[in-house]
Amino acid sequence: MVREQELAFAREQAAMSNTRLFGDSLNKREALRLISYGSMLLCDLTSIQAGFAIASHWRGAYWLQLYGFPVSVLFCVIYSMLALSSGSVTRDAFGSRLRSAMLGERTLLMASALCIAILFFQPHGLTLSRLSLLTAIVLSALFIGAGRIIFLTLFLHNRDEFWTSRIVLLDGAPPPADPGLTTLDAQAEGISPERNDPDVVARLGSVLADHDKVVVICNDAERASAWSLMLKAFDIQAEVVMPSDLPIGAIGIGRMGDRPTLIVNRGQLSVASRIKKRLVDILVSALALLLLAPLLLVVAIAIKLDSPGPVLFRQSRVGYGNRPFRIYKFRSLRHEATDSNGNKSVSVGDSRVTRVGAFIRKTSIDELPQLFNVLLGDMSLVGPRPHALGSRAGEKLFWEIDPNYWQRHALKPGITGLAQIRGFRGETQEQEDLTQRLNSDIEYLEGWTLWRDFRIMIGTVRVLIHHKAF
């Protein structure tokens, strides 16, 4: 049975592509949102330039005529950084027109304070005209407020449809009356809340990949409870139309038409958070690959000289949204003894480990090729460590030990994670070995911040060489 699941899982992988810049982090609708964010920011920056340009042509504005353009550029740079970090050009700015205008004015006020502080440290001999600068700021504020109101009026008539792509899964229930909803017969597509079947989990992940929200309609109370637990494993807003109230860990109440729903998941990260995390991944992994290139070359040569076989070991792992991907590692085992399915973990004194393999495993150098996985978007620098489909703790497969196992894949897998810096790594001989890691993974998912990622990366340096690495 496990072998059939592995083959199905591999087939699912073969049909997938993960080479986009942002990997699976952004769907098409989210890409359109990013374009809207950029358009609003461009509108704001144009307003600032217009304010400075008009102010510089007023009588007596000699200071702006001389220095207006470089000062306006400084304003734009500071405004852009503040707008992106404070949420002034994110989803919050696309609701109420008045609120959007107020967000823009608030950001301009902060940018003005910073810019004026910088100008006070100007070189001697440069006279600052406070009246001219104040005129430019006031005009910029008026243009930003008016520009945002006009922008939202012209381009966002259907904000609800623009922000949310919703799919309705029908599990033995008739379709809703609304003909405009995207519906899918779960049973006809071979989709169910069966968490013991990796093929089904991966198939559901593929279905949900291009949507922001899923609503499941079923008429069976037990199935509804199973769906609520299943949907917690995906980075998506999820609701279940309940036949009756059940204690299933719902986090809120929603509605679909005239029918109430229980919200069981809101997704892990906002679009802005995913972009920040992805940008850090790209910058750090690219820099690390550049700096570590000589070491990678030396290790590759050593592996080739030590034993016959390829330099890299490739294996299918469970990734983001429970969708499979192919991980890269330096080969540390004899080629003829490698386990592509991960059914047998490497243990202390394992005869399959080569001489070079023992060293690179002890020092965690064997993990360095995963920087390419990060660059491609399959992985993140920090996240739950990806497991092979056939991984076991004792005699049981990982997902058979804890029903919450699939929830750890609601974020991208990482090269390092919270569990690793706590010392939960190495061989999983007992079920407790997995439970400790799983608890840390879920804790990380529920409390993600970019600063926490940095702390984990710093903490990883201390545990690169570890007594549990072999």
From TrEMBL:
It is found in: Membrane. Its main location: membrane. Pfam families: Bac_transf. It comes from the Bacteria. The chain crosses the membrane at residues 34-55, 61-82, 103-121, 133-156, 282-303. It is a multi-pass membrane protein. GO terms for cellular component: membrane. GO terms for biological process: colanic acid biosynthetic process; polysaccharide biosynthetic process. Residues 277-465 form the Bacterial sugar transferase domain. The keyword Hydrolase does not apply. Keywords: Exopolysaccharide synthesis, Membrane, Transferase, Transmembrane, Transmembrane helix. One of its GO terms (molecular function) is undecaprenyl-phosphate glucose phosphotransferase activity. NCBIfam families: EPS_sugtrans. Belongs to the bacterial sugar transferase family. This is Exopolysaccharide biosynthesis polyprenyl glycosylphosphotransferase. It comes from Novosphingobium ginsenosidimutans.
